[in-house]
Amino acid sequence: MSLEQRSLHYKPEEALEAQEEALGLVCVQAAASSSSPLVLGTLEEVPTAGSTDPPQTPQGASAFPTTINFSRQRQTNESSSSYEEERLSTSRILEFLFRAVLTKKVDNLVHFLLLKYRAREPVTKAEMLESVIKNYKHCFPVIFGKASESLKMIFGIDVKEADPTGHSYVLVTCLGLSYDGLLGDNQIMPKTGFLIIILVMIAMEGGHAPEEAIWEELNVMEVYDGREHSAYGEPKKLLTQDLVQEKYLEYRQVPYSDPARYEFLWGPRALAETSYVKVLEYVIKVSARVRFFFPSLREAALREDKEGF
């Protein structure tokens, strides 16, 4: 029985631990090339999909002799095809298990880092390995990278290296913003990510964004008026009250609108702590993989830079 076949009889984590060496190689390769999807490797070579070549011996010669009659060749090829399909199916199962465990590790690390942020404590690589990564230390670069990206894009929290020799990190709000929304009762999730999203939207609209345009974009992100969000709480209150009271946003009636319509602008605190240029640089950095294009934001940033704001 091959290693792949034995792995099917294990629990998911046991199956993956049995292939720790291969997983380490995959994770190292993934860390070196972030644009490539994670693919589970195995200790044995797996034929490519659609391949009709017979399996090879370690010496590279065909495992089946060529000087046999057609009927035996056909029977052998059918057996080989079945064997290859079984190996491919096993590899896909193991890939699925690996992705499931990897996703769980990323989620666990995000939760661990959020606890560290709320406690205002630095974190070391050793702590992350011991508390979360454990037997998947070879995958640390990938897990840490994915978790850091999630913290930045969802919560607006940046993981910065404080001590390269000791692999120590600190967690700070992005873009120099001092707001995280953790004050008050039951405020357990940072809201800086939501604030950044709104500031970006306003900048994209040329400095003032209609309320309906804001909600249209938020709905695409599955953030809805009147529906509690797992990370942002009640978004209507956060948008029209909390961030306005914190002076990050201005919420006003559109002049001469009848019936009344409302729009959002950057508040004085946002203008004091960050800028259109910084926001533009941030957006380009976090969305480089998607290659978004923000013409209005670019124009606003260039205008701000020219006018010396």
UniProtKB/TrEMBL annotation:
Domain of life, per lineage: Eukaryota
An example Gene Ontology CC term for this record: nucleus
Ranges of compositional bias, category Polar residues: 49-64
GO biological process: negative regulation of transcription by RNA polymerase II
UniProt domain MAGE: residue ranges: 102-301
Alphabetical keyword list: Tumor antigen
One function term, GO molecular function aspect: histone deacetylase binding
Region (Disordered), start-end ranges: 45-64
PANTHER family in alphabetical order: MELANOMA-ASSOCIATED ANTIGEN 1 (PTHR11736:SF49), MELANOMA-ASSOCIATED ANTIGEN MAGE ANTIGEN (PTHR11736)
Protein name: MAGE domain-containing protein
